[in-house]
Amino acid sequence: MGLPAGFTEVKACTGCKTIKYCSKTCQAKAWKLEHKYECKVLAVPTRPLLPHGVRATLKLLRRLQAGDKTVTELLRFEPKFDEIQKSDPEKYEEYSTLAYGAWKYADEPDAQAGLEAARRLFFAINRNALSLSTPLDDISLGIAFDPLVCTVNHSCDPNAFFIFNCPKTMLRASRPIAKGEEIFIKYRDVINPFSVRQAELKEAYYFDCACSKCAKGATLREDVFVKPIEDLSPEWGRRADELIKRQAARKINLTWFRVGSNTSQAERRMSALQAEGFAPWAAGRQIVNKWPGSLPGTSITDLKASLRVCMESGMWTITRQPVPHLLHSLFATYMAAGDVERTLHIGLKKHFVLDPVIAPQPFWYEHLVDTWALSQTATTYSHPRNQGDAERLLRKGCDTRILFLGLLMEVWENLPKSYGRESPLGGVVERVWRTCIGEMDEPPMELKKQVRDAWPALKGYAERIDVLTV
Ligand SMILES: C[S@@+](CC[C@H](N)C(=O)[O-])C[C@H]1O[C@@H](n2cnc3c(N)ncnc32)[C@H](O)[C@@H]1O
C-alpha cells in the first residue's frame, strides 16, 4: 500500500539502521559528505542516541572541511561562551565535552573545521537552533539551525510563525507586518504565565525576554486568576497547605511556577496549586531538576488530576495555562488511544471555546493542525458502524456530519496562509477535499450556508461540555 499523497517513503541506512533517506541520491551524497563518520558511531547498539547538537556539529564540521560556504555563514552566530559559563558552569562543561566528542567523531578535522569551530558551532546550535516537533503530539523530530530562520528574534507577541514543511523550513506572517518592522516568532509557548515564559526562555536560550508583552510583567490575561488569590476557598486553602508540605518534602524547586513574590500565604498556596497543575507539562518537557524525586507522569489520570486542581479550585479560567496545555494533551492522548468520543468532546471544547481566545487566527499552524485532527475525529461518525453514536450525538445537538464539513472547509480555506496546499499536510487535506467536495476549490454556497446555520448550535453544545466529566 502506498503512502498518502504528499508523503515520501524513507528507507533506513543498512549500516546504522537509524538515519533514514528519501532517495538513493540523497543517501549517496550524505554518505560521502558526512554520514560515513556518524554511521559507525550510531551503529553501536548499546550507545544511546547522539544528542541532536552533537550530530549537527559533526555534520557541519565535515561540510566545513569540504569548503561548504553556508556553514561559514552559521559560524557568525555568537556562541556566547562567557555568558553560558557564568550563568550555568555545569552546562558549560557539558557543552565543551560534547563539542569535543563531536569533533572526535568527525575524525578530528583540522584548521578551519578544527576543535575551535566545533566549540563555536556546538554552543551556537544550542543557543539558536529551533526545535522541530510533530504539531499534534509534540514529539521531538530534531532541530533546525537555519541561517535565515534562526536570525529571527523571539517575542511573546509574535507577528510571524515558523513552519516545518518537512524537509523545508519557512516563515509565515500571522498579521500584517509593516515595511521595516522587525519580524518576531515564538521560540516557546507564549500563553504561559510570565514566570514560566521567562524561565523557559532562560533555560533554553539564555536570555531574559524583553519583548513588549514581557515588559508588562505578570499583569496580563496569562497571569490573572478568576478571583483575587486571597479568596481561595478554605477547602482549597487546606489542600494547598498539604501540597506545600509535600512539595517541600520532595525538595521540588517551584521557581518556575511561583505566583507573585511567593511571600504571602495566599501567594504560596497559589504557587503550590499552580505547580501541581503544571506537573504533567513539566514532566513532558523533562524539567527534571524542577521535579527531583518521583517525577509526575503524563497519563490520562495525571492530566485529569492536574485539571481538577485548576478547575475545582475555582481559580483558573479555561484559557489560563496550564488548562489549555492539559486539554491539548488530553485531546492528543485520547486520540492516540482511539477513544473517539472523548477526543471529539475535548476537541470541541478546544475549538469553539478555547482556541478563539488563545489562538485567534484560524490559520495559526497549531490551531490548523488541531482543526484538521478534530475534523478527522468527526468524520469517524460517518462510518455505518458508528451510525447509532452519530444519531445519539445529533439528538443532543452535535451534528457530526456538518461539523466535519465545516472544519474541512476551515482547514482548506486557511491552508494557503499556513502550511500551504502544496505541503505534505496540504496533500492529505486536498485528497479528502476532492473526495468530499469535488473538483472546485471554493466550497459550494449551499454548503457554506448549512455550516453557517449549524455553527451556533455546535458552539452551544461545546460550551455545555464539562471537561472534567468527559
Ligand atoms: C535564534 S537567536 C536569534 C538571533 C540573534 N539575535 C542573533 O543575531 O544571533 C536567539 C538569541 O537571540 C537573542 N534573543 C532573541 N529573542 C530575544 C528577546 N525577545 N529578548 C532578548 N534576547 C533575545 C538571545 O540572545 C537568543 O539566545
Query: What is the number of beta strands?
Result: 8
Q: Runs with pLDDT <50, length 5+?
A: 288-295
The major beta sheet can be summarized as:
2 strands, antiparallel
Order of neighbouring strands in the sheet with most strands? 1-2
- Give the names of the bound compounds: S-adenosylmethionine
Backbone shape: globular
How far is it from the N-terminal to the C-terminal residue, by CA? 36 Å
Query: What gyration radius follows from the Cα positions, in whole Å?
Result: 24 Å
The SSE string, one letter per element, is EEHHHHHHEEEEEEHHHHHHHHHHH
Count of the domains:
4
Strand content range: 5-15%
Structural class: mainly alpha
Whole-number average pLDDT? 90
Measured as a percent range, the helix fraction is 40-55%
Number of helices: 17
